[in-house]
Structures are given as C-alpha cells and as structure tokens.
Amino acid sequence: KILIIGACGQIGTELTQKLRQLYGTENVIASDIRKLNIDVVNSGPFEVVNALDFNQIEHLVEVHQIDEVYLMAALLSATAEKNPAFAWDLNMNSLFHVLNLAKAGKIKKIFWPSSIAVFGPTTPKENTPQYTVMEPSTVYGISKQAGERWCEYYHNVFGVDVRSIRYPGLISWSSPPGGGTTDYAVDIYHKALADQKYECFLSSETKMPMMYMDDAIAATIKIMQAPVEEIKIRSSYNLAAMSFTPTEIAAEIKKHIPEFTITYEPDFRQKIADSWPASIDDSSAREDWNWNHEFDLATMTVDMLEHLK
Ligand code: VAH
C-alpha cells in the first residue's frame, strides 16, 4: 500500500488522485497535518499526521501495511524565507523519519521531491547540467540540497530505495497559488479570468524553468515504476519541460483573453527567482528512465483556462 504525506499540498492533491486511479483508492492512504483539501479527504482513506512526529508515521505504516511513501510535505521557497527554522525542521526531519523507516525495513520504496531551488547564483543559468556548482541561497534550496545528499547516502550505505526529482516551477488548476516563487504562474490564470489583469511580483523578463502538473505527476509515477537498474542517480534527477518569462505567459493568455493586461511590482521573491536557473538540462532523466514531457506553454494555457473558467 502507498502512503502520501502532504496529500493536500500542490503536488499531493493531484498525486493522490492519480495514484488512486492507478492502484485503487483503498490502496492509497492520504495524509496531511490537517484536513486542508476536502476532495482529498473525502475521496478515500485519509489520516491526520504530523510529518515531524516519527511515532505517528511509524504507526500509520504499520496499521496500513505501507510499502511505499511519497513524502510531499515541505515549506516552499517564499514561505521558508519567512520561517527558516521551521522550514529546515519540517523539510529535513520529515525526510529522516521516512529514510529511517526504510533503513529499518519497514517500508520498501520512497519518493522525495527536490527542486531546481538546489541551484544558486553561481550555477550556470542556461541548460543547467545534472552535475554542477550548487550553492543555494534560499532556506528551501539549502534544505533540498541537504536532503539530496542524505537520500544518496541512505541509498549507498543502507540500500534504501529512495527516488527523487528536481521539480521546476509547477503549475496546476486544482490547487490555489501557494508559497512558491514560481506560483505567480498559477495566480496569473486565476486573475486573468477574474479581473482581466494581474500585478506580477517578479520582473517581466524573469525566465524560469516550469512544468505543467500533469507532466510532473507522470514523471513521479514513471520514476517510481522504473526498474531499479534504470535509476542511476540517487541524489535527484534534473527534470524540465519549458521555460518562460512573465511577458511570455501574459502574451499566451492574451491570445485567449485579449483585454488581459499585466503590470510588474517585483518584491522579495525577485531575489529568490534571480538565484535560480533559467533553463535545465534533463538529459539524464530522458536517457535513464525514458522521461518525456507533453505540455508546452500554449497547451498548458488552454488546459488551465478550460479548467478554471
Ligand atoms: C517554489 N514552486 O517556488 C517551488 C519550486 C522551483 C520552485 O521549488 O518554491
């Protein structure tokens, strides 16, 4: 059986639904710190769990006979800058709890999300390689880089089967914009439909790697279903689909909502965005486990506006 910790979050919400379709609702236990998403809570087995409480997680694993854990609970970049100590605690200790359960043989496989936030201002900005300089300058990025190091260590030293993806900015219609710096690209669709205008908290030419949630979920399931010999990287795989600027996504939206206008008022999140790459080289994921994305900016925009209107 599968346990998703952080099932009510931006990725968790859709991941829960897809895993339930794939493996059967009763075989996918959703859990979160509170009943934050009523659809997730009502669509199958749900448990309230604190990702920082080892005993609570161990109890769920035993009671539900869990084989695989998807640990999706974390503070994202902007929120983490406002709560550094809690962000480090949540992002790191929740990972140790799950890694230690696997080390003890209580679970067989782990998925843990990393992020392009592991790269920093000294990382090559275009076509950022799988292996390169990584000096993250955000609390969130530091926690993700440290987490990658521990995932690789637990695999090499204790044989833990933990698999990880460095997600770019993710965009979906099923969750409201959250504490992510890339979440302007979610909010812009909501505001375009509601107000026909959007005040962007990043500057117009801020280019960042992005991906539609459908592709991110497909990649997550693909890496977890891949035969163990295909997983050659046990820190975390670069993953990419597209890169765009606020100017470019606004122009794409204008094709559907001609009266849409955008203004720019960069805030503290500009510094976070400027520390990240503009585009990512994900050839390792494409070579090792046959990753391929489907959505681009045009097709994502059609799907987002279709679901949100
Ligand atoms: C954030 N959406 O903005 C997340 C992600 C690469 C960005 O880690 O914090």
UniProtKB/TrEMBL annotation:
<dbReference type="GO" id="GO:0008743">
    <property type="term" value="F:L-threonine 3-dehydrogenase activity"/>
</dbReference>
<feature type="domain" description="NAD-dependent epimerase/dehydratase">
    <location>
        <begin position="2"/>
        <end position="232"/>
    </location>
</feature>
<protein>
    <submittedName>
        <fullName>L-threonine 3-dehydrogenase</fullName>
    </submittedName>
</protein>
<dbReference type="InterPro" id="IPR036291">
    <property type="entry name" value="NAD(P)-bd_dom_sf"/>
</dbReference>
<comment type="similarity">
    <text>Belongs to the NAD(P)-dependent epimerase/dehydratase family.</text>
</comment>
<dbReference type="GO" id="GO:0006567">
    <property type="term" value="P:L-threonine catabolic process"/>
</dbReference>
<dbReference type="InterPro" id="IPR051225">
    <property type="entry name" value="NAD(P)_epim/dehydratase"/>
</dbReference>
<dbReference type="InterPro" id="IPR001509">
    <property type="entry name" value="Epimerase_deHydtase"/>
</dbReference>
<dbReference type="Pfam" id="PF01370">
    <property type="entry name" value="Epimerase"/>
</dbReference>
